[in-house]
Every structure is written in C-alpha cells, then in structure tokens.
Amino acid sequence: MEQRQDTSQRGQLTRQALIEAGCLLFGQKGFHLTSTRELASAAGVNQALIGFHFGGKEGLYSAVLDYVEAQLSARLMPSKDTVHGLQASEGTPEERTICSLAIGEMIDNLVDVLIEPELETWVCVILQEQQEDSAAHERVFENFVAPHFACLLDLVSRLRPDSSETDNRLTTTILIGQVLAFRPARSLILKHMKWETIGPEQARAIKDAVRRNVTLPLVSRKE
C-alpha cells in the first residue's frame, strides 16, 4: 500500500512538473515551436513520460490550458461577497453602486494578474494562444476569455441601460484593453513612466488611473 502511494505521489509530481514546464515554454514559444524534448528537459523527466501521463504534446498542452484557466479565473472574477451583493441589489437603488464596485474590483484583479511576476508564465500562455491559429484558440476564448467579457458586459449594461448592445460591448472592450496594454508594452511603459519596475505603489497608481478612466464611458447617456 505504501509503495502504491509513493508511486502515485511520484506520478503527481511528474505531472505537475510537466505542466509547469509547459506553462513556461508554451508561454514563451507557443505550441508549435515547443518540442517534447524541451518540455521533458525543463521538467527534469524522461521524454516518454509526456506520452504516459498526457498522451503526447497535445494532451499536455490541454492540461496546461486547464491549469492556467482555473488559476487565473479564480483571481479575475469578482469575490463571492460582491456577487452576492449584485444578486441582492438587482432592481434596487443600490444596484448601480454595487455594479460600479464590481467593475472596479474586476479591473483591480486584472491589473494584479498582469503585473504580478509570479503569474507571468500563466498570462503569457493565454496571450500566446490568442496570437496563434490553433485548434485550442476557440477553446481558450469560450472557456476563459468569453466568460470574463460577459461578466463585465453585464455590469456595464446594467449601468448603461439606455446604450445599445454594440456600444456597451465596445465600452467593455476599451475597459479591458487599457489594462491589457501593460503586458505587451510593459518595457515601453516603464521607460515612459520612468519606473524601474511595477511594484505595489505603481500598481496602485495604475488602478487609480484606470478607475478614473472607467467613470467616463460608464456615464449612462440617452441617444
């Protein structure tokens, strides 16, 4: 029994090592330019174990996406308390206030995810996939990107009931886009801001600036 547990534990450690290696290499090079030899070397395991645990590179890539999506989703969505507040406030005078707070929370969460060094490999996997024309592109959009856009769109629409769906979708895209710029343009932004890095103080400044910008497109208007 003890030997079985040791074998199972070793298997779990091997799987996790390969997933972490996949996060790093797939995020840096993409699926097509990453070889199984590189993955095994980065994980410090025998190359054959990729097939044993995942059925091949495609299976490992799918497991990496599952892992990254789960880790990032838990950090991006509004807290349970905020969700409960949204449900309880629907149709009440407090609804607009709660919606605004929820949008601010999602924006703060996105800033944290994009600038946190420890999360860089996860973020790069998602961004890399969105630049590739692979079979997983649609899967990443449906399972990860779309739910977050939909959540933010719902909040924006509740704040701007008189605006068209197209206008609210554009507003949602602009809100997310102004935060996403801090990942691919990080080095340029650091030079422009005369920052050496983006630490807690800089992150707070980014969040405050984005929140100020958020209030402008969210002012409900009648056509």
From TrEMBL:
HTH tetR-type domain boundaries: 12-72
Keywords from the named record: DNA-binding, Transcription, Transcription regulation
InterPro entries referenced in this protein's UniProt entry, alphabetically: Homeodomain-like_sf, HTH-type_TetR-like_transc_reg, HTH_TetR, Tet_transcr_reg_TetR-rel_C_sf, Tscrpt_reg_YbiH_C
DNA-binding region: 35-54
A Pfam family hit: TetR_N
UniProt GO MF annotations: DNA-binding transcription factor activity; transcription cis-regulatory region binding
PANTHER family (alphabetical): HTH-TYPE TRANSCRIPTIONAL REGULATOR BETI, HTH-TYPE TRANSCRIPTIONAL REGULATOR RUTR
Protein name listed in UniProt: Transcriptional regulator, TetR family
